[in-house]
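Duplicate of #3305? Posting structure anyway:
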């Protein structure tokens, strides 16, 4: 395993832009997007635009292009309309599920068990992943934008490796859910996983790579890492915790159906403080939508972007006097969608 892969913590730091500079760039992206309608206007909250800007090191042109691609994808794929009964067969084995609690920093937690893969359809697997992402976002507490992935490699073997699914997963995560992943813990990956990681690592952006932590149950630092993140009485015993109940598909299905009922109101058109000053965010027909295929928009402020605005976001898996900080920026602006 490489030195980077063996590190259980990362102490990078990205110097945040002044809040007024962030808001200026957010407003510039919004101007370049033009008129939006319905759910797309709700999606483009200040917080959402800020995530796309952070993913592109606050480069307005690149963030706008990225956001247009996601808006087009959301308009066609309609991820917020996926319901449990449509993807329930993908969930039967517990290969991906959301824990019914958050970590100590308010982030939703998705458990993933590659060895529990029960279907061969890449399309179906990605659709279930998208459902899980939307559900996790639905359940984020106020002022929290990110989630944690706990990937359990118990029972994992070569037959469970799929470069295609991994590539598609990376594409969906990075292109359509930027800055949503706070941390991915690979728990007890086998030694033969190393060459696979070498193959798939180039699919991941550097920021995403640095959010992936290899954790081993026989490592003396493992329990400290998990204790920093979780209430050990709640955490499953598979990850060193004290909960031995585990996944129950029937109970989980009940939870997801209840969550499905909340989704329409989550995406209902409401006037938030950030929207009140934007009269262009009104209902319109699809013909009124901006040209989401265009990537030629440029910002009047692009020439002012400098290399000093680039850097790695904070991903420290260690506690300080204010608590653990994994996402370097705490500048959450507007509603979170």
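Output from current build:
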């Amino acid at each position: 395993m490489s030195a980077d892969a063996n590190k259980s913590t990362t102490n990078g730091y990205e110097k945040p832009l002044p809040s007024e500079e962030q808001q200026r760039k957010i407003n510039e992206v919004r101007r370049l997007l033009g008129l939006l309608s319905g759910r797309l206007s709700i999606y483009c909250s200040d917080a959402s635009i800020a995530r796309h800007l952070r993913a592109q090191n606050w480069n307005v042109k690149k963030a706008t292009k990225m956001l247009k691609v996601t808006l087009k994808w959301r308009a066609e794929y309609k991820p917020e309309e996926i319901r449990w009964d449509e993807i329930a067969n993908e969930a039967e084995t517990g290969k991906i599920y959301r824990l019914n609690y958050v970590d100590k920093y308010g982030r939703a937690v998705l458990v993933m068990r590659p060895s529990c893969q029960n279907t061969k359809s890449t399309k179906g697997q990605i659709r279930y992943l998208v459902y899980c992402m939307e559900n996790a976002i639905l359940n984020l507490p106020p002022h929290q934008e990110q989630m944690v992935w706990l990937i359990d490699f118990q029972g994992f073997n070569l037959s469970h490796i799929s470069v295609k699914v991994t590539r598609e997963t990376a594409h969906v995560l990075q292109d359509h859910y930027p800055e949503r992943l706070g941390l991915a813990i690979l728990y007890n990956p086998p030694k033969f996983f190393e060459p696979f990681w070498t193959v798939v690592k180039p699919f991941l952006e550097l920021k995403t790579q640095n959010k992936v932590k290899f954790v081993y149950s026989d490592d003396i630092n493992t329990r400290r890492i998990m204790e920093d993140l979780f209430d050990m009485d709640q955490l499953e015993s598979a990850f060193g915790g004290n909960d031995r109940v585990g996944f129950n598909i029937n109970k989980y299905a009940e939870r997801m159906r209840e969550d499905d009922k909340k989704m329409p109101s989550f995406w209902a058109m409401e006037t938030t403080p950030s929207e009140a000053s934007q009269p262009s965010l009104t209902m319109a027909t699809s013909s009124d939508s901006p040209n989401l295929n265009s990537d030629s928009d440029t910002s009047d402020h692009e020439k002012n972007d400098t290399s000093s605005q680039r850097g790695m976001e904070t991903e420290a898996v260690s506690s300080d006097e204010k608590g653990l900080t994994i996402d370097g920026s705490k500048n959450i602006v507007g509603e979170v969608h």
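Confirmed duplicate; merging threads. Residues 39 and 267 are 6 Å apart (CA to CA). Residues 60-77 form the longest helix (18 residues).
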